Amino acid sequence: MSDPGESVHLTTERLVLRRFTPADVDELVDLDGDPEVMRHLTGGRPSSRQWVEDTLIPCYLEHYRRYGDLGWWAAHERAGGDFLGWFEFRPTRDGERDEVELGYRLRRAAWGRGYATEGVRALVRRGFTGSGVERVVAYTMTVNAASRRVMEKSGLSFVRTFHEDHPETIPGSEHGDVEYALTAGQWRAREAGAGSAILEP
User: Fold this and answer.
1) d(C-alpha 141, C-alpha 15), whole Å
2) What is the pLDDT confidence band of residue 164, given thresholds at 50, 70 and 90?
3) What residues contact 51, with CB distance under 8 A and at least 6 apart?
4) Is residue 115 included in any domain, yes or no?
């Protein structure tokens, strides 16, 4: 595993988000090896080590090379340094920065502790204040209530339910997927409103 102090992207009250390196293969294989973590993604099927080494890590590194501050970020506990999973904040269109897709995948031990919401809010703030992002989108299965709650608590709003042809059917896929989104204008308006509320006597 890489040193969490290397290539730090941002820190929050409890998290450190940093760039992935080829030394992180074991952590990613372990993360994707938990059937519960992968339940709403592949139906529980794990990612192979070869795929992580030959496809996933090179994809991460290429995003850093092309976009710098947009991509996938390894998440560690700030206090103890434990690897918790990752956050995704990368362009939806090749070569453009105005719209990014948000995602996250955390170990089961990190579930229910507010880490996902904390990381998402920090990335959204960074995107709208320093990365030139104008719209954030996120997708999950309709039945993934926990992920939908994170999106809502992070300020994203429901946009639509849609159905796509997936290479394999997994439990719950018959209900389709959902899209959530947040624009820079909406975020700034909410931030301004929160600031005004704080200033009121």
Assistant:
1) 26
2) confident
3) none
4) yes
Q: Is residue 138 part of a domain?
A: yes
What domain range is 152 assigned to?
8-199
C-alpha angle with apex 155: 61 to 12, nearest 5 degrees? 55
In a domain, 1, yes or no: no
Pick the closest to residue 24 from 6, 39, 2, 7 (CA basis): 2
Taking only the tens place, the pLDDT of each residue in 52-96 is 999 999 999 999 999 999 999 999 999 999 999 999 999 999 999
CATH number of the domain bearing residue 24: 3.40.630.30
d(CA 126, CA 8): 14
The model carries a pTM of 0.89
Q: Domain tally for the chain?
A: 1
In sequence order, the 6+-apart residues with CB closer than 8 A to the CB of 19 are 6, 7, 9, 60, 64, 71, 73, 74
Span 4-34, pLDDT tens digits? 445 899 999 999 999 999 999 999 999 999 9
